[in-house]
Amino acid sequence: MDAAVRPAPVVAAILLAAALLLALPSAPARAEPRPAASGAPPIVGNLTGPSLVATGSNGTFYFNVSGGPAVVEGIFVGTINWTANLTGANTTGSSVSPANGSVTNSTAQPIVLTLTTGPIAESLSLTVKAVSSVATQNATQNFSYTFRLVAPYTVRATLVAGPNAGTLPFNVTVLLDGTAVGTVPVPSLSPNQSWGLVYRYPVASLASGWHTFTLQIADQHGLVTFSNGKTVQSTSFYVAAAPPNNTVWYVVGVVAFFGVLFIYATRSAARRRGSTRR
Questions:
Q1: Rounded to two decimals, what is the model's pTM?
Q2: In the prediction, which pLDDT does 186 show?
Q3: Can you give the chain as a three-state secondary structure string?
Q4: Separation CA 197–CA 216 (nearest Å)
Q5: Residue 194 CA to its chain's centroid (Å)
Q6: Count of other CB atoms within 10 angstroms of residue 160
Q7: Do domains 44-150 and 153-274 have the same CATH topology?
Q8: Which CATH superfamily is domain 44-150 in?
């Protein structure tokens, strides 16, 4: 019996030691190390432009970019270099200008990119790669914009100034079915001088049936008219129903010819140009 009772003090000592350990204050947990923040803002920007561009014409796109290591608290301390390129099934005849450049301050925004299009109707993507850098730090970001080249509906006319007076520069507004779709600037014309007006309207398709293009002289002073004394001339064209393969139809386009249109300055304008003081 005595041998069975002797271990009791040992057990009590173990329990007392455990109680003392529980009573001691716990040591603080060690925080996991975190990577130091670079402090550089992300590269941000946007690339915008038309969703449809006529083949054989020009399109304008706008690019804004900032951020990355080159910018600290909104102030440029480095440089953002960028390059632009076109991708597609066939980019023959299409190009973008300028193809590269640099941004060193925010006042240079936006960057204007001019697209020259080839003769092939298809989808293209414009991609601008931006590299923001200062010293040995740099970051890269790509911006892409997809658009479609379509065969345009083309309006053609030959404007001929009357024999008695020339004209100062003026604009001709192009309307389709009564809605303005574009503007063509006309240079100054001398008496009897002719000038070819061309306007390309990019649209994927028009509803089948008759449509009307109208040329309207946007002369604020009313001094320039067509030979009929009016400021508008119209011509109609017919669009046939699309065949089952719409993709093929969309690349057809049409040409609306106005022929030769004589334009005249009013008599008062002619007198103002030819009057002399006695």
A1: 0.70
A2: 93
A3: CHHHHCCHHHHHHHHHHHHHHHHCCCCCCCCCCCCCCCCCCCCEEEEECCCEEECCCEEEEEEEEECCCCEECCEECCEEEEEEEEEECCCCCCEEECCEEEECCHHHCCEEEEEECCCCCCEEEEEEEEEEEECCEEEEEEEEEEEEEECCEEEEEEEEECCCCCECCEEEEEEECCEEEEEEEECCECCCCEEEEEEEECCCCCCCEEEEEEEEEECCCCCEEECCCCCEEEEEEEECCCCCCHHHHHCCCCEEEEEEEEEEECHHHHHHHHCCCC
A4: 12
A5: 34
A6: 18
A7: yes
A8: Immunoglobulins (2.60.40.10)
Tell the residue number behind the tokens 């970019």, with chain if given: 65
How many C-beta atoms surround the C-beta of residue 152 within 10 A?
22
Residue pointed to by tokens 């911006």: 143
The burial class, CB within 10 Å (0-12 / 13-18 / 19+), for 173 is middle
Return the sign of the alpha-carbon dihedral for residues 8, 9, 14, 17. positive
Tokens 């609306």 sit at which residue?
256
AA identity, residue 64: N
Q: Is the pLDDT of residue 227 over 90?
A: no
- Strands in 209-218's sheet, in edge-to-edge order, are 179-186, 170-176, 209-218, 232-239
Q: What is the CATH number of domain 153-274?
A: 2.60.40
- pLDDT tens for residues 96-129? 999 999 999 877 679 999 999 999 888 999 999 9
pLDDT single digits (tens) 13-28: 434 344 433 344 444 3
Domain locations along the chain: 44-150, 153-274
pLDDT at 79 over 70: yes
Angle at the Cα of 102 from the Cα atoms of 49 and 112, rounded to 5 degrees: 25
Q: Which residue is associated with the tokens 């130091």?
A: 36
Q: What's the chain's length in residues?
A: 278
